[in-house]
Amino acid sequence: MSIEQKQIEIIEEFSSFTDWMEKYEYIIELGKDLEIIQSEFKTDDNLIKGCQSRVWLHSELKPKGTLNFTADSDAIITKGLVALVIRVLTDERPEDIVNADLHFVNDIGLQEHLSPTRSNGLASMIKQMKMYAFAYAHK
Amino acid sequence: MSIDITHIRKEFPILHQEVNGYPLVYLDSAATTQKPQIVINAIEHYYKFLNANIHRGAHYLANLSTVKYEDSREKVRAFLNAEKSEEIIFTSGTTDGINLVAQTWGRQNIQAGDEIVLSMLEHHSNIVPWQMLAEEKGAVIRVIPIHESGEWDLTQIDTIISAKTKMVAVNHVSNALGTINQIDLVIARADAIGAKVLIDGAQSVAHFPVDVQSLNCDFYVFSAHKIYGATGTGVLYGKSQLLEAMPPWRGGGEMIKSVSFEKTTYNELPFKFEAGTPNIEGVIALGEAIDFVSRLDWNNMQAHDMTLLNAATSELMMIDGLRIFGTAANKVGVLSFLVDGIHPYDVGTLLDKQGVAVRTGHHCTEPLWNHFGVSGSVRASFGVYTTLDDIDRFVNALKKSIQLLR
User: Fold this and answer.
1) Which residue has the higher pLDDT, A48 or B235?
2) Which among A91, B263, B384, B398 is least surrounded, fewest beta carbons within 10 Å?
């Protein structure tokens, strides 16, 4: 499934929610279900320090040439948002990740979480994912 | 007589709106207070009818704006009960005032080996300027510790404030916990050994009256926006003999008596420290904000603050796994807390979804949270417009948030 297809899938999932509670319940569930980053990768080197919630991000290039991401956060909502971004970008080719326009965040009404005042580390994480992808794409 | 909260709320237009489909419950007054209509009007009126640069120009508007600006200085003098109006320096805020003292009095008087005493409860604004000075001069920072209650532990105060101490810079009220600090004891000790004292009043001025003469502190700083005034305006009070002896900080217009390329002589107080065109509308609006606060009776306001704090505290204490940080007997309307196993950011996000504005994180007091062994808290803080209904909505929204997060 392409990055775009995955975004459309997420937008469809979210379109069924009628209020903020259902939406956040779902995000919290995603956060709880996020496959935990292996402890050896939960290091300070992999830490993306937001002002409030912290995010750890690990990337790995697979033999078939795609980039895989695992991550964790100390805040469950951030973790749910991280899970969504990972779902869209993981297992994709580095050049596709670099060029990806993550419009789904806006489309499902979660753009506020990318604003600098939120300081949740999510915007920095996306930037970091693209930087990893850029580095692999130009290896 | 209790305060007429319905009437007061009518004066704050921003409160009458919905956020995320819920009536706004604004519990972040310690970060900044909302503004009453008279303050908003003062700013609009300034630009419509008064705007002119002050202390220069012989024309009608320049005189008018200068008179209003200097009226505010006199209002602040009376508000702090300072002896003279030239002891009131307008700054851009608390941070600016502390930096001014550190960079002028500090650079003139602090030497290698001297000690600067802060407390565990300080805001970064009252830590970093002193660290910068200490680093430059080779001075040493010492810290007043706290009890678990969030009150200063003054048992060792005579060794912490010693003959080596040149400056004691502490807050009157903790922004993170709400503790009203025993500054009188610290000022007395500093006075006994000849150290100067700067009080960070950012969190106190909106909650109780301050009398700098009876406190006998050397410097007192606060921000207008924490007391229903505008952002970008603040006050530094200093004893005149200290301010006189301090070198100027920022050079520019207004702060000079005469300038030539050979020698510049500086203006007298308070203008020596007010280089450049100041935030004129902010200063005029501060005068209005002080009038607003002065019309409310302090006793009533404090009683209201306590009613809110007690109600919120007893409600929160009933929530399973909730820990309140800051349990001092003397507090202002600030409640800092954490819920077991739940990140403050998650609580703040879900409260916001229900129209409740709180602060989450370290509140610019990282050393304090390191001391408690946590990364920060959720903080609800109250203003004159906060109601018991706000507290109810907040508590219910909090319970719902916890339910979703557990």
Assistant:
1) B235
2) B263
